[in-house]
Amino acid sequence: MKIAVGADHGGFSGKEKIVLHLRRLGYRVVDVGTTSPDSVDYPDYARLVAEQVAGKKCRRGVLLCGTGIGMAIAANKVHGIRAAVVWNPAVARLAAEHNDANVLCLSGRFFDDRQRIAMLDAWLSTPFAGGRHARRIRKIRAMEKSC
Predict the structure, then answer these.
(1) What is the pTM of this model?
(2) Domain boundaries, the chain
(3) What are the angstrom distances between the C-alpha of 48 and each of 32, 42, 53?
(4) Which fold, 2-146?
(5) Which of 44, 45, 103, 104 is least enclosed by beta carbons within 10 angstroms?
(6) Residues known to be catalytic
(7) Measured CA angle at 145 (ends 141, 147), to 5 deg
(8) pLDDT tens across 28-51, in order?
């Protein structure tokens, strides 16, 4: 599986660890940046990752900023993206299982590397449940087309 990963300065350090972890697990990683802890604008990186996923160049994406919230807001502007901010492994599992989240948004400031990796692993290892949840995802897709 190919995964796009991006971060702003608030998530740079965590992104570097996530990229290494994903590669160790055998994932192909598209690292869109940023490449340093210097200040940058998070929407630029959210868009790069979201477009990789929406364009089916990558199956999933991971974004990090100070809280994860800004990245989620920006990524969700791209048609076909379901970006979820998570704060523990249980919520990460539910984002995958119930919401078929294709982009995971993590805080670079409020969690340590171990916690972020636990959330990432939970999200990656949980399949979408389908069923009643698929009906809801279809409704979200319909909203994208009508708005």
Answers:
(1) 0.97
(2) 2-146
(3) 7, 10, 9
(4) Ribose 5-phosphate Isomerase B; Chain: A, (3.40.1400)
(5) 44
(6) 65, 98
(7) 110
(8) 999 999 999 999 999 999 999 999
